[in-house]
Amino acid sequence: MEVEILDAKSSKSLGKCQVTSETTIKALKGEVYKLKKSLSIHRQALRLEPRGKTLKDSDTLQSLSLSSGAKLYVRDLGPQISWKGVFLTEYAGPIFVYLIFYQRPSLIYGTAASNAMSLTANIAAACWVGHYGKRLLETLFVHRFSHATMPLRNLFKNCSYYWAFAGYVAYHVNHPLFTEPSTAVLYAGLAGFIVSELGNFSIHMLLRNLRPAGSTVRKIPVPDSNPLSQLFNFVSCPNYTYEFFSWLSFSLMTTCVPALIFAAAGMYQMTVWAIGKHKNYKKEFKDYPKGRKAILPFVI
After folding, report:
1. Nearest C-alpha neighbor of 66 from the set 51, 78, 49, 50
2. Orientation of helix 153-173 relative to helix 83-103, angle to 10°
3. 104: Cβ–Cβ under 8 A, 6 or more apart, which residues?
4. What is the mean pLDDT of the chain?
5. Global pTM value
6. How many angstroms from the chain centroid is the CA of residue 47?
7. How confident is the model at residue 211 (pLDDT cuts 50, 70, 90)?
8. How deeply is 34 buried, as exposed, middle or buried, from its count of CB atoms within 10 A (0-12, 13-18, 19+)?
């Protein structure tokens, strides 16, 4: 059978592809690439209508009720970058930025930097580097991405957020005039941070094991033998819950308002993501647990 490919913006024909009814959208993208070499398969969004919904790679032409002579529209998603590349860049940056303030304070604070770093500042630096170091290792060895790439423009947006907040928080925590909290508050915050980081990691490992390598299998996530995974009984995205608790604990540990602002900004964005994922879970799985919330038990 023959399928014509048109540009989604101009409706100009790019050419016709020889396919079968069993051809998947992913395979068709390879044929479109042959028609226009500037459109790699990762830059393509194929649709039934110019402004229609993007078709899934797993869809077949038969499942979409397309016959010979059908027309499909392709939208150029623009330059792409791998998800792994984005994550490595946006997570390495905060370590580098934070350590400038911690290791080279004279560059920021001048002669006032002759004061010794506080115990809180030393512990906070270790926690900050530990958090983003964990993220880098998870990116390399744990996470399995549903999509190979994302638009290159997202790299600059994501890096701006993480890198700018790193500088904002580091400036205050490492400042020569920084006032330490009490020992009890410091270690209470540290304990909460460590538990939350372990919880976040345990959820990431559970989600990794839920999807076999190289597959797009989706299952309802449920707790495993790790007690920290029991949060799945209450929320759909406990990894975000633990992430928020990590930064809330960091804010308590440092009694730093900029750190609390960072925690609140992250919580807002993760809540948006969690609500979206929660809705998708309920839509995809008819037997999805009704008692779960999106990110905060019994609340959101």
Report:
1. 49
2. 20
3. none
4. 94
5. 0.86
6. 26
7. confident
8. exposed
